[in-house]
Write a structure and sequence with these properties.
The protein is mostly helical. It has 2 domains: 3-354, no CATH class; 373-487. It has helices at residues 3-33, 40-50, 62-73, 79-83, 85-104, 111-121, 123-128, 134-153, 158-174, 181-191, 199-222, 226-235, 249-263, 265-274, 281-284, 291-303, 312-328, 332-354, 376-387, 398-407, 427-431; strands at residues 392-395, 414-417, 441-445, 463-464, 478-483. It has a 5-stranded mixed sheet. The longest helix is centred in the first third of the chain and has 31 residues, at 3-33. The termini are far apart.
């Protein structure tokens, strides 16, 4: 590398890396000091990692693999060790976005640093840095794929095609939302000649993607399209039992408003202004990596419902588009306001993580109720089982089972899911249900409902494990000692 190029690379790399490391370290320390418990999805992802496979009930496998690696490296298993990949993966994503921005605008000093800090300041990234989710795991792979595909369109190499396809495959193995890459790439190809890579490169990129994604595709085929079916269930309005299209304008408005909140209002305005602003064709192509994502999820919100994070794939390229638009027009003050507002929101999120009991919901419960006192149900069930001289605990609730398997992993008790009556409703019923040949007494912990055995009898409950504070508060959790045969469908 010539000396001038090396100096230019160092000019953006060193300050950006220092800033990203500082933010990431701060978030790791907040996680370390947090007293919150894992939410049901987080515990479930950890359980998946204990049973390595090419797919799981509701998600592709990458998050389970990642958590298994971190679990093997952890000195002590805890909520911190499970969530630790979150700030680290977002830190890597920030650096990749910074490198991407530097490639797109190499003559603009500070572009890489601004993009990295803009990304790390986003409220959705702040939340995602304190919780482990599939969006977080997908992010660096998808950004890497976008960057290498963009390079291919400018005359990249075979190595770029192979690595880019592999990264998109890894993004797909993290979350199926990685497929939003495809409509954006197709639209950019149709609109801009400069976004048309060589046919051989497209073939290599596509082939590598399919090879990496193939294990999960084949797993789905071998398991009755389990993950695909669950994804379609989330969509809701396409199911056979759906009452049909019932437009949900309130839900659509709520989703659109949520995007201003999770992306930050200033950066969303910048992105909207960039839609009609003149820019080089290859930079305008980046807009189309976001537009189809938001359009599709807005339609989903109108037809049924959509959560704020369902369009996370749009935010990754959008943060580059919005930041570079502002830099090109010297809207530095606007960038400071945008980052500052986001940092203020992120600081509130960090306080909630560190001190979840400080802010209440007006009903005597912490605002972060779902992350507080979650492990109490496992502790109560274990204590009751020992009191009753029972060594097997069974439940049907996915949330309950998630905590049983995580917090009870090193227990001398055995945990099972209640066998399903028909198709399984969770991974636990699919893979970890009470065996057909199991006999003897078990402790069954129900959620709200009284237990009726298969023969129609209703056993007497031995306890109610409901809690006063946190995730399990205000909910009847009747417990029963019954023969295993009672629980079979």
């Amino acid at each position: 590398m010539p000396q001038a190029e090396a100096h230019a690379a160092q000019d953006w790399l060193r300050p950006t890396l220092i800033a990203v490391l500082a933010v990431t370290l701060a978030r790791v320390l907040v996680l370390w000091g947090s007293p919150t418990d894992l939410y049901v999805d987080e515990s479930q992802y950890w359980v998946w990692g204990q049973y390595l496979d090419f797919g799981y009930f509701s998600k592709p496998p990458m998050i389970g693999w990642v958590l298994r690696v971190f679990d093997e490296l952890a000195i002590q298993r805890s909520a911190f060790s499970v969530r630790l990949p979150a700030p680290l993966f977002h830190g890597v994503t920030a650096m990749l976005l910074a490198g991407f921005a530097h490639t797109m605008m190499p003559d603009r000093r500070g572009a890489a640093l601004w993009v990295a800090m803009a990304y790390l300041s986003l409220p959705i990234v702040a939340v995602g840095s304190f919780l482990i989710s599939t969006d977080t795991i997908m992010a660096p792979f998808l950004v890497g794929a976008l960057m290498l595909y963009w390079r291919l369109c400018g005359g990249g190499t075979v190595r770029d095609a192979l690595l880019g396809g592999a990264l998109l495959g890894c993004a797909f193995l993290s979350k199926y939302a990685a497929l939003y890459f495809l409509p954006g790439a197709v639209i950019a190809y149709a609109l801009y000649p400069s976004m048309r890579p060589h046919g051989r490169h497209v073939a290599l990129f596509s082939l590598t993607f399919l090879l990496v994604a193939a294990p999960n595709i084949l797993w789905n085929v071998a398991n009755d399209l389990t993950t695909v079916s669950h994804t379609m269930d989330n969509i809701g309005w396409v199911k056979e039992e759906s009452p049909g299209v019932q437009l949900n304008f309130g839900g659509m408005a709520e989703f659109i408003a949520s995007q201003f909140a999770v992306f930050g209002p200033v950066f969303m305005v910048f992105w909207l202004l960039a839609l009609r602003a003149p820019a080089p064709a290859r930079r305008r192509a980046m807009i189309w990596m976001s537009v189809p994502v938001w359009a599709i999820v807005i339609v989903q919100a109108l037809m049924s419902r959509a959560y704020a994070n369902w369009a996370f794939a749009a935010i990754l390229p959008a943060v580059i588009v919005a930041t570079l638009w502002a830099l090109e027009r010297n809207r530095i003050r606007g960038l400071w306001v945008g980052v500052g507002l986001n940092v203020a929101i992120s600081a509130v999120i960090a306080v909630l993580v560190l001190f979840p009991m400080w802010i209440g919901d007006g009903k005597g419960q912490p605002l972060a109720k779902r992350y507080v006192n979650v492990a109490a149900i496992t502790e109560a069930a274990e204590a009751l089982a020992r009191e009753q001289n029972i060594d097997t605990v069974v439940a049907r609730s996915r949330g309950m089972l998630a905590d049983f398997f995580f917090h009870g992993a090193d227990s001398d008790l055995t945990f099972y899911a209640k066998p399903p009556d028909g198709a399984p409703h969770s991974y636990y019923q699919q893979k970890l249900a009470l065996p057909d040949d199991f006999s003897g007494p078990v402790l069954y912990v129900s959620y709200r409902d009284a237990l009726t055995c298969r023969d129609g009898s209703q056993p007497e409950q031995v306890a109610d494990l409901r809690q006063e504070i946190g995730s399990w508060s205000g909910v009847a959790l009747p417990a029963y000692v019954v023969e295993a045969d009672c629980l079979r469908p």
